[in-house]
């Protein structure tokens, strides 16, 4: 019996000790999922609250895990990186990991896929357009590059970061 491999895209963000927490999160994601594809790193203003700027990117990986198993892995990594369980939705974060897509699955349980934030937040859509420009959003059937092209960029400030991940885990 062969295992089916699934393509996943994960958003990564932090505004508390962001370089340290994003690096640690990427190390742990690589341990969990193997080789990672990374978008450009971006900085953005906090959305929905007043706080420090965020460091954001989108990560692509492959997995044989189920959606539920991926979600549990992401939550475990957040906790290892100091995330407080049940923290407020719009608040500072040591590390925020969200499963954006799992193949072309559209579902509401155990999480909503594709993630709604893709269409509404520059810090998610822009890195997705970088990483998977020709991939189609499973509900709009529009490429991420086209969605970014049509996005109202005056809604949220976003700029490339000078941060680089040292990729310590082999």
TrEMBL record:
Leading EC class: transferase
**Gene Ontology molecular function, alphabetical:** 2-amino-4-hydroxy-6-hydroxymethyldihydropteridine diphosphokinase activity; ATP binding; kinase activity
Residue ranges of every copy of the 7,8-dihydro-6-hydroxymethylpterin-pyrophosphokinase domain listed in the record: 10-133
Q: Does the keyword Transferase apply?
A: yes
Which pathway does the protein contribute to? Answer: Cofactor biosynthesis; tetrahydrofolate biosynthesis; 2-amino-4-hydroxy-6-hydroxymethyl-7,8-dihydropteridine diphosphate from 7,8-dihydroneopterin triphosphate: step 4/4
Name of the featured protein:
2-amino-4-hydroxy-6-hydroxymethyldihydropteridine diphosphokinase
Q: Which NCBIfam families match?
A: folK
Q: Which domain of life, per UniProt?
A: Bacteria
One of its GO biological process terms is:
folic acid biosynthetic process
Q: What is its EC number?
A: 2.7.6.3
Q: Where are the coiled-coil regions? A: none
> Which keywords, in A-to-Z order, does the entry hold?
ATP-binding, Folate biosynthesis, Kinase, Nucleotide-binding, Transferase
A Pfam family this chain is assigned to: HPPK
Species this chain originates from:
Agaribacter marinus
